[in-house]
Design brief:
The protein is 43% helix and 16% strand. By secondary structure, the chain is α/β, with parallel strands linked by helices. The protein has 2 domains: 94 residues, Aspartate Aminotransferase, domain 1 (Alpha-Beta Complex); 233 residues, Type I PLP-dependent aspartate aminotransferase-like (Major domain) (Aspartate Aminotransferase, domain 2, 3-Layer(aba) Sandwich).
């Protein structure tokens, strides 16, 4: 908690740990645009190894990583098959059309996954005057579906359908390590089903800034050039990369604590609003969502009790647990929820 407030708006509000601050203060640095920052290089190598890819690229944000994947994998004028509630579709301010000249073939993702049959349909539809797909995107964990991790067999089925059509797959793994911890499936096993994979260091892993995009060496080399075009070239970035190394090394296993706390919040939500669509058994990671007819008024009410919540769609409220909210903070939030209208 910070300043007596329980901030559950997002896990992006996490502050760097003391170990991260020390690592940042003493980081060895160089000019990353020239490939000379040893700490950035070490972070990229560590992440690539962790997810089983040839190379990785450090970028300022997850949105930039997703946009780089679109630019290097999806031909301009093609469609990207993705769940209609995925971050890349609705939470990146229309960037796909602006940056990559693509449009989305948005399919059902109510449970956080997409159906391989929907990929097959999009491919076949190109023979009937529909726009030809160029890429398949998945999100793991899937935020609007209460942070649902993908079942590995389902992911493999989607990847197989995409592969049969010659389509690359990009995984928006902003919370990939939440998926790993909740499911027991290693991040590398998930990433093996995708051409490229992105992960945010600045959410549950507590780094102050930065995300990584990993994939084949030639793809990442091209993405490095596109990063420059988007203004993402950084100089002595080892100062922030140092926190990312700590994040990968120290902050993954503790995500289980966030998951337990989110489940506690989900129980309170289900008790207070039993018909709001919040099923605690479905909350396996750190995101809790539910429907409320007066969502903005509810958010204001909770803020009055010192609990910050957010919304992700009209009439949909969200809470996200993270390192900076402890058990006492969760219980304070539970009390506020149970007393809300």
């Amino acid at each position: 908690m910070q300043s007596g407030v329980v901030d559950l708006r997002s896990d992006t509000v996490t502050r760097p740990t003391l170990e991260m601050r020390r690592a940042m203060a003493f980081a060895e640095v160089g000019d990353d645009v020239y490939g000379e920052d040893p700490t950035v290089n070490a972070l990229e190598e560590a992440f690539a190894q962790r997810v089983g890819k040839e190379a990785a690229l450090f970028v300022p944000s997850g949105t930039m990583a997703n946009q780089l994947a679109l630019r290097v994998l999806a031909p301009a004028g093609s469609t990207v098959v993705a769940g209609r509630r995925q971050h890349v579709v609705i939470y990146e301010n229309g960037a796909g059309a602006r940056n990559a000249a693509v449009q989305f073939s948005a399919v059902d993702d109510i449970d956080g996954t997409i159906d391989p049959a929907d990929v097959a349909w999009a491919v076949e539809a190109a023979s009937h005057h529909y726009v030809r797909p160029g890429l398949v995107c998945v999100e793991n964990t899937h935020m609007p579906a209460d942070g649902a991790p993908w079942p590995l067999d389902r992911l493999r089925a989607v990847a197989a359908e995409a592969g049969a059509a010659g389509l690359p797959v990009h995984m928006d793994g902003a919370r990939l390590f939440n998926a790993e911890v909740a499911s027991g499936v290693p991040a590398a096993a998930y990433a093996a089903e995708a051409t490229t994979v992105m992960c945010c260091l600045s959410k549950g892993l507590c780094a102050p800034v930065g995300s990584l995009l990993a994939g084949p060496a030639d793809v990442i080399s091209e993405a490095r050039g596109e990063r420059q075009r988007l203004g993402g070239g950084m100089r002595q970035a080892g100062i922030i990369a140092a926190a990312g190394l700590v994040a990968l090394d120290r902050m993954v296993d503790r995500l289980a604590e966030d998951h337990d706390r989110a489940h506690r919040l989900a129980e309170a939500v289900a008790e207070r609003w039993p018909d709001a669509g919040c099923d605690p058994s479905r909350v396996r990671t750190n995101v809790v969502t539910w429907r409320h007819a007066a969502a903005l008024a509810l958010v204001d009410h909770l803020a009055g009790d010192g609990v910050l919540a957010g919304t992700i769609a009209p009439g949909v409220v969200r809470l996200v647990t993270h390192h900076d909210v402890d058990d006492a903070g969760v219980e304070r939030a539970v009390k506020a929820l149970l007393g809300a209208v």
